[in-house]
Each structure stands twice: as structure tokens, then as C-alpha cells.
Amino acid sequence: MLLTVNTAVELTCFLVAGICLHRDESAAWKRMIPYLGLVCLTEMAGIYLRRQLHVSNTWLYNLYQYVEMTVIWSFLYYHLKPYLKTGKWYYLILAALLLVFVTETYIRGWYVFANISASVMSVVFIVACLYYFLLVIRDDHYVELRVHAPFWWISGTLLYYFGSTASNIFFDYLVSDAVMNLPFPLRYIVFNILNVLLYCCWSYSFLCRYRQRNSSSSSV
Amino acid sequence: MQISSKEFLFLFSLITLIFLIAPLFLIYYFSLYNKRKKKHMEEKEELKKAFEHELLKSQMEVREQTLKTIALDLHDNIGQLLGLTIMTLSAINPDDGQRAMEKIDAATEFAKRSVKEVRALARLLHGEEQLSRGLVAAIATELEWMAKARQYQVIYDHNVPEIPASRDKETMVYRLFQESLHNIFRHARAKEIRINLDYRQQRLRLAIADDGVGFNVPEVLKMQKGMGLHNLHKRAGMIGGEAVIHSAPGAGTEVAITIPYG
Description:
Mean pLDDT of chain B: 84
CATH topology of the largest domain in chain B: Heat Shock Protein 90
Distance between the termini of chain A: 48 Å
Order of helices and strands of chain B: HHHHEHEEHHEE
Oligomer: heterodimer
Largest sheet of chain B: 5 strands, mixed
Structural class of chain B: alpha+beta
Shape of chain A: globular
């Protein structure tokens, strides 16, 4: 059965993105549609590999992590860009993230989850989200947060990556036999909650974006 | 010390919970701050509107004051001169050549003085233009007119030939100056008026002092008739400055307006 809490919420978010963003004039926002499509495919393929073929899906999630760090960092930077004077940080941080990821997968191999890269990536994303909040606070212009699409997207991202920090830090222990044999899969439950929070915030941000586009086009 | 799997899971759950609550609080704090920012911006906007309203009121009052001065001058000065011209001309006897010439010369003199007065009035009529020449010059013109029309000894002192242009502040300061002068005419019974305009280190200080009867400042401020004084404080405050009034019965009055300028 490919439909789980994770896949259901991811598919819903993908559908909302498809409906709300397919006519968006911003290429960055539009890129969320193929990215979420890829998220759904990865999640379903991961379940299929593990449950149907009974083989490891770690290599798939490692591969996905590469896309995730590029897309999420690029989109975060897209929101930070209006407040920044220089664009060099984008390439510097992306290069650093990729270096950590390549090094870890080279040393540990593709069949071990790159949790150090995931932790570093989470820290970078958390700092970027907090920095975005700081820049918005310092900016002279007021934004109506209730309907401000970037705010909801970044809030969802912050909640997800902040919440997953403990899971990333204790990853090795959480996947050890001692913990995996317990009656309830705690890591799985945590990620279910985080995914629900993330994709609800993202879906709402896509709706805000859709409403913003419609209201601005109707006022012209 | 080793911890069991159950203890680890408990600790892990606790840490995850903290890591989930922390960003929630951050987001909440951020939205709260944003609301305060909105309130602050609304207050700023209200202050801006109040300032614009007060500025408009000041501009109108400057014009009104100018028109009052003109009306008074037309009645007391030009009207009298023209009346005298008519009387002199109508009294001419063509048979008495010598006297007729004298009267014509006198009427010509009255007419010339009238023209001079009308020209001076025309200059005053352009109240707005007065300020376009700068605050120092506008005050000088007003004082020149006042010295001519009323019996005051006026001493005008300023430490710079002109101050940097700032239309809104100039209008407000000019109106404060007019208001202070008006108070002197109405209540002070003064003989001497001293004006000092001092501009240094981006601060402008305008002091208007008289040797009149003076008054008890706290007492007048408490009464309804102290509205003019309240206005001085309010308007000076609106341009980021302050108005200080020193006075005592029998000891004259000094109004000092200090504002950040430039």
C-alpha cells in the first residue's frame, strides 16, 4: 500500500501547488510543482522498494537529499535576495552543502543515510529562515503575515527542519535494532507530524500566492 | 552510565517536542512584533497627517495675518493719503495761480506716498514669496513693516545670512514668530522687541523678547486664554522642537523656539 500519512499529505500539497502555481509568473514558485512531484515519487518509490521488493531505499533518499538541498536552499535564497546586497552567499553555501554531502557519501557509501549532511543542511536552513525573519522585522515596509505566502513557506520550512534536528542528531541510534524493535516507530511518527506541519504550511502559502496573483490581476 | 531504549525514547521525544515548540514561539514572537510594527506605522502616519493639517492651518493663518495687516494699512494709511489728495485737489482755486501750484505739488506728494505704500503692500501680499526668499529675509520684511506701522523699537539679530531651505519647517517657524509678535501687540504694551535667530550645529533657535508687562506663565497656561501658548508648544513639538516661555509680571516676556534643522 503506497498511501500513507506522508504520501497523502505530500500528494495533497503537490495538487494544491499544481492548481495554485501553474500560472504563477515567478519561475521560482513554479519550480515547486516539479519538486513536489519528485517528493511524491521518491516517497512512493521508497515505500515500494522497502515493502514490496524488501531492499534498502537509503540510496534513493540520499539521491533525493541532493535535490532537496539545492531546491530548498535556492528557494530560501530567492526570498532573502530582495534584502541582500550581494549574491555570493548563494554559491558559497550551496558549494559548502554539496561538499559535505559528496564527502559523506564518498566515505560512508550510498547505502548509508547521509545524516551528517542532513544535520548540516537543517542548520543552514534554520539559520536562513531566522535570518529572513530578522530581515523582515528590520525592513521599513509592513507585510500582512496572515496572507503573505513567503512567510508561510518559510515558517513551514523552519518548523520541519528545527523539529527534525533531534532525529538527525540521534539518527544512528534511532535506526539501531534496540530502538527499531520497540512497539512504536517513534522516528516515523515524528516525521509524520513534521511532514503534516510542513506541507500544510506550504499548501497554505501556495493558496496565499494564488489569491495574491488573482487579486493583483483583478485590480489591474 | 548507559540508558535504556525506553529512556532514550523519552528523552528523544522531549527534545523533539522542545525543538518543535521553539520555532512555534519564534514564529509567534515574529508575528507579534510585526503587529506592533503595523501599529507603529499607523501612529507615524497619523502624526504625519496631523503635521500636514497643522502645516496647512499655519499657511492659512500666515495669509490671514497678512490680509489683516493689509486691511489695516488700507484703512489707516493709504485711505487717509488718498482722502487728503482728493481734499487738496478739490480745494484748488484756478484763479489763485500761486496757491493752486502749491496745492498741486502737495497733492502730487500725497499721490507719490500712496504709490509707495501700495508697492509696500504688494510686497507684503506675497506672503508665500516672502518665505521663498528664506526665513531670515521673511522675518526682516515682517519686522520692517511692523516698525513702520507701529511704534516699537525693533532689534533683529541673526548669526547667519540665510539658513538651509526647509519649506515645511520654515512655514511653521514663521507662523510661530507671527503668533509671538501678535501676542506682543495684543497684550504686552512693550516699547522694545528683540528678535534673535541663531543657527548652528543643525539647530535653529528663534527668540522673541519684549520689555512689556509680562505675565504669570503657569497661570495663563491653565486658563482657556492660554490657547495661543499651547499652540506654540504644540507646533514646536510637531517639528521635533520645543518652545520655552519665560515671563513674569512687569519683567517682559521671552519666547524661545528651538528646533532640529537641516
